[in-house]
UniProtKB/TrEMBL annotation:
Organism: Catharus fuscescens
Primary gene name: Zswim7
Keyword Glycoprotein among UniProt keywords: no
The keyword Hydrolase appears for this protein: no
Keywords recorded for this protein, A-Z: Metal-binding, Zinc, Zinc-finger
GO molecular function: zinc ion binding
GO biological process: double-strand break repair via homologous recombination
Source domain of life: Eukaryota
InterPro entries: Znf_SWIM
Name used for this protein in its record: ZSWM7 protein
Domain SWIM-type: 74-112
Length: 138
């Protein structure tokens, strides 16, 4: 599953602009708010607070962890646009009201702005993170 082309293009424009000027111009911020609605501003806050961490194992497998505003750590899978937060399950999957939750949007924005923390872990540690998420779900 991929984001709509307009969303992908907007994220590309944000990345390009940020690389050139270290800023995101107002027109792109407005576009962000238009496309992603109420998750845009909280996602930008998460990026500003450097709440996004890319967790990577030696084999190259990776996932993202986002420290939510509530202080809870959520696991995001950017490859399939999935987050473990309740808002994702409700607004994105059940109601189809939003494209993404603020956590996944924060992952994409932090990638575009080079604002990701990096954490190298062993294969076993990565597996434990994934298994812990499954236990939380079930």
């Amino acid at each position: 599953s991929t984001l709509p082309a307009v969303a992908e293009e907007l994220l590309r424009e944000i990345k390009k602009s940020f690389q050139e000027t270290s800023q995101v111009p107002d027109d792109l911020l407005l576009g962000l708010k238009f496309i992603f609605g109420p998750s845009a501003v909280p996602a930008l806050d998460l990026v500003d607070q450097r709440s996004v961490t890319r967790v990577r194992s030696p084999s190259g497998r990776s996932l993202y962890q986002v420290l939510g505003s509530s202080g809870k750590l959520y696991t995001c899978y950017s490859s399939c646009h999935f987050c473990t937060c309740p808002a994702f399950g409700f607004s994105v999957l059940q109601k189809s009201e939003s494209l993404l939750c603020k956590h996944i949007l924060a992952v994409y924005l932090s990638q575009a702005m080079g604002a990701c923390q990096e954490l190298a872990v062993s294969e076993e540690q990565l597996t434990n993170i994934l298994l812990a998420e499954e236990e939380d779900e079930g």
